[in-house]
Amino acid sequence: MTAFLNIQQLSVKLQQKPVLSSLDLILQEGEILGLVGASGCGKTTLLNTIAGFAESSNGCISIAGDEVVGSDFILPAQERQVGMIFQDYALFPHLTVRENIAFGLTNLTTAEQKDRIDNLLTLLKLTDHDNKYPHQISGGQQQRVAIARTLATQPKLLLLDEPFSNVDARLRNDLMLEIRKLLKQLNITAIFVTHNKDEVFTFADKMAVMAEGKVLQLDHPTVICQKPNCYQVADFLQLGSFIACEVKGQELITFAGKLNLGPNSNSNFSSVSIEKQDDDNGYCMLVKPKNLILLSDDALANVQVVHVGITEQGYHYLLSAIENNEPTELINLSFYSDRLLVLGQQVAVQIIPHEPLIFLHHQ
Known about the structure:
The chain is an alpha+beta fold. The protein folds into two domains: 230 residues, 3-Layer(aba) Sandwich (Rossmann fold); 121 residues, no CATH class. The chain has eight helices and 23 strands. It has a six-stranded mixed beta sheet with strand order 7-8-9-3-10-11, with helices on both faces. A five-stranded antiparallel beta sheet has the order 2-1-4-5-6, covered by helices on one side. A hairpin with a 2-residue loop joins strand 12 and strand 13. The radius of gyration is 25 Å and the shape is elongated. The two termini are 36 Å apart.
């Protein structure tokens, strides 16, 4: 299957500073990709480069089989048929909803413009607001207008830079589901930038985690969260806590218990990829809250409660390991329980058998 969006070895420099470095990315037609990563990792620069607003120093980009960036060729932004929606929507305050949507349709006849705008107003539930100005409608409706204006030009690819950050939290989920349904209905391929992994689960088909100008992992969101391929991915997505561990033969040893890694255990150690250990660094293990259990009061305490919070999942605790009767360096081991513990209380937790995720400690 030929990729709809194919990016190979893309590099971009801004003010002589590398921002994207030999980046590869493939997306199929109709897929929605959620692009996440720390601030400054190159997410917005990637969108700008795909759209033609930033110039690459190396690499190739093709969209729907057409090359837009090559070794000696750069297609102007206005000819790429790429639509981009910015965080602030960039609506014209002096134009009505209908006039905003019509802004890029000067190449169509008046009748063609009306048909296309009427169709988009219906699809995006804006029919009753067509003669209103941006300041007269809600944030969610403003976003729909921005999307309608971009879709009116019938782009091949839609790019969205933190599109939901200005929408009230109460309406955000409904709006994401609504826009996703529209994109699927129109079979539009899209990439959106976000800092919120929960938005990716609601809105996207795939997730790409970026760091230092590269894509670290690209896959379905559930796959990435279940099996992050490196420490940086697990750490950025805050999938759990990291604790020191030691691998001895068929055993994984931690302060909170041992895991049997043999073929008859509940841990499928053969599927876990562990990098070669060097002389100066050990391993760390990703521990998700669901992999911890609280032992009875008569068990020897191995953690101390350093934070107590309340969530919809019950009480949320951050725990610090205890060794030699003294708390060690704060590791903020995350744990949920229906049982009420108090700040400073010492209790015993144990890691339950599961397939472990292990990384080099120094990463």
